[in-house]
């Protein structure tokens, strides 16, 4: 059985969210899978990625082939480097939440636009 690490689509119409899964190569994209390794939300800013690096390295060491996109996500999480070089990777990788935007000023637009250039 050839195992691939790939994305399966979940979420509502026009609002995709993906699971990173280990699945048989012959099964359909959203079909049966062996194990969920993480999640990926490309619509968040920045993209939300959560990967269980321990499980990913386990599957890679057993010969699972990642898809192109999953390989890039594993490179971001450090699991790919841990697999190829034997270095340590964090057990679970998660992209930190973006910082809150600064509060807008309460001054009227006309006062800011006119300034005191005179």
From TrEMBL:
Organism of this sequence: Candidatus Neomicrothrix parvicella RN1
Q: Which UniProt keywords apply?
A: Ribonucleoprotein, Ribosomal protein
For this record, the Gene Ontology CC terms, alphabetical, are: cytoplasm; small ribosomal subunit
Regions of biased composition (Low complexity) lie at 95-109
Q: What are the BP-aspect GO terms?
A: translation
Top-level taxonomic group: Bacteria
Q: Which GO terms describe its molecular function?
A: structural constituent of ribosome
The identity of this protein, by name, is: Small ribosomal subunit protein bS16
Looking at the record, which segments are called Disordered?
Answer: 95-118
**Which family, according to UniProt?**
Belongs to the bacterial ribosomal protein bS16 family.
- Gene3D superfamilies per UniProt: 3.30.1320.10
| InterPro entries to which the protein is assigned, alphabetical | Ribosomal_bS16 (IPR000307), Ribosomal_bS16_CS (IPR020592), Ribosomal_bS16_dom_sf (IPR023803)
């Amino acid at each position: 059985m050839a195992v691939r690490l790939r994305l399966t689509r979940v979420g509502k119409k026009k609002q995709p969210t993906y699971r990173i899964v280990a699945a048989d190569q012959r099964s359909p994209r959203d079909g049966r899978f062996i194990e969920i390794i993480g999640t990926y939300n490309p619509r968040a800013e920045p993209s939300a990625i959560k990967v269980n690096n321990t499980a990913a390295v386990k599957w890679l060491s057993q010969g699972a082939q990642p898809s192109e996109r999953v390989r890039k996500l594993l490179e971001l999480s450090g699991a790919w480097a841990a697999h190829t070089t034997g270095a340590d990777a964090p057990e679970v990788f998660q992209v930190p939440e973006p910082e809150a935007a600064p509060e807008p000023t309460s001054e009227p637009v006309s006062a800011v636009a006119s300034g005191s250039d005179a």
